[in-house]
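REVIEWER CHECKLIST
Item 1: Sequence provided? yes
Item 2: Single chain? yes
Item 3: Sequence as submitted:
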Amino acid sequence: MTEKLLHFIWQFQYFNKTNLITQEGEELVILNQGALNTNQGPDFLLASVKMNNITFVGNIELHINASDWYKHKHSNDENYNNVILHVVWNYDKPLVVKNKIIPTLELKTLVAKVLLQRYQSLMEFTTKIPCQTFLPALTTIGWMSWKERLAAERLENKSKEILQLFQESKQHWEETFWWLLAANFGIKINQQVFKEIAQSIPVQVLAKHKNQMQQLEALLFGQANFLNEKPTDEYTTLLQKEFQFLQHKYKLKKVNAKVLFLRMRPASFPTIRLAQLAMLIHNSSHLFSKIKELKTVEEVKLLFDITANDYWHYHYKLGEKTDYAPKHLGSQMVDNILINTIVPVLFAYGWYNKEESYKTKAIQWLQQISAEKNTIIKYWQTAEIAIQSAFDTQALLHLDKKYCKQLKCLECAVGNKILKTV
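Item 4: Structure as written out by the authors:
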């Protein structure tokens, strides 16, 4: 038995309540189990019970062992003065406070064994998903409702992180968006260094040079430390000269982190991503301001319909010539940017400004984007959970990370349903 499970059992009254008797021999009827208290003090507040036909209103404290009351020194804490009932799993000691006996209810013999067995099964799972053998558990409508809450939780969590960056950017939405967009172009392996590159080049500097493609690439490749070596072709020489001038002009701070090429296809090389990012800046201005006023995902995708400049048709790295292959930003990458940058920033913007229309639009856009494909999502597909869009996959990724991996089955709608149907 754990305290969390004990709280769960009491909160949802998952025990036999017929002819309840306290350890002191009093007849007990639970009128209201109280509200779960997440702050200091008794576990459940404003409860009401009837003992020997007398109604009591007050608080309820739960412990695994009755003697835990003394271990936790509640007798000396005035927050516990209004406890009307002590609920325990194991009654090992009577509770006497200020010469007064506090009635105690022992639950050990009142809870169905199958509930305990199911809980143990969830905690000691051997499958990829703790409750896999019990799925789907929820109805179709139940899953829809739970996924809505999960997706909202995920976006709210991301919004908190975004708003921290927003404060770092001195409350500049375009700057914040630029940092996150660049980080997204770095994918996982170069996410942090791409973010540092973006933070080293203010959006105002980019805006001044947006019409000069070579200057944009010089800024990005220079800050990524790709222009430190002796050039091996004319284009790299040109970029190096441009960067030396711009670096001095804007007093750009050096980025010390190293860009990596590990375990990736040439089309995803950081050099290609930087070139595509430069083209995106070249093609647009005030990008976030423009995006947040668009109506549909398709309109957003048109903004990201870009190809790196001609030099990159014949190169994957500076100075290393290859066969012709246009470096177009793929649809999968555009979806990735929508899911991981555009939708979260749009939601955060709506949250910060208390404008529900932007939050609603962010969720609607998620529902219009194709479902993601990864190992975690495959497990849920195997369990025959409906997955139709990125809205579903984002919800399930959040479920996996924040509930399944942390074994928070008691806080999960699925786990709750599994334990309830005993």
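Item 5: Key structural point noted by reviewer: Residues 223 and 255 are 6 Å apart (CA to CA).
Item 6: Recommendation: ____
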